[in-house]
Amino acid sequence: MTSSPSARRFDWKNLGQRALSAVVLIAVVLIAVFVDQIFFVMIAVAVALLAIEWAAMSAPRTPNRLAIAIAIAVLATLFCAHLSHLPRVSYFPLAWAFIAPGALAVALVARGLHARPGDGAFGVVYIAAPCLALSWIRAMPNPISWTILLFAVVWSADICAFLAGNALKGPKLWPRYSPNKTWAGFAGGLLGAMGAAMLTAELSTAKLSLLAAALIGLAGGLATMAGDLLESILKRRFGVKDSGDLIPGHGGLLDRVDGLMVAVIAIAGARFIHQAGWVH
Predict the structure, then answer these.
(1) Residue 2 placed within a domain
(2) 120: which of 82, 102, 197, 238 lies 20 to 30 Å off by Cα?
């Protein structure tokens, strides 16, 4: 059994590199938010990169073929979802239904490659679900406002958790899997997410009350933390420190969007509830 990871001090030497990488990523995302064509190209590129990173972690002996299989399975669901832009038709239920057979097909491919079928199947679900949730948000009314709200919540949760955790320190959140995270950082991240959601609701056309925005921020903040912890558990399972080395100072793309991948599902759920008129 692998020993628990030891806490390590934050490497302040690469802070400038991390900040520069973050600025570039934020700029790309903000440009894509306002241009649908760029946005969907960005998602497709992200799917390919995430599939490569997942395959490299879960099947290091045969990563390329498994990555191709995962990418094809996920992109098939996204293509189906993209058909929802046709007038008077919604293909999203069918797109969600495609995830299961796609995961089964990749499991069979993984088995043929002498990799663990469950890891291959989970990779499809792990990547496809948030991508479909994000595509659904973009297909609903006020897509830009809700997309900005999503990223504001996730980025604020990450930044405030980092600042509060490093400033206040204190008891660890879950030292077995993520020894650097603290309860202070957890609380700071939630407050930051709630504040970002409320501010975005006030400045955008999302038509949310401050209470609804705070609740959505809370849900998104919790999901962001959960996504970060989930990736820590997965990396520990695969025995890797980072999912890759694509982004200077951050590791792989999965290391950068782990919280977003769970938060987008939570925000999409909140969007559905709000659209149904249950919460205003």
Answers:
(1) no
(2) 82
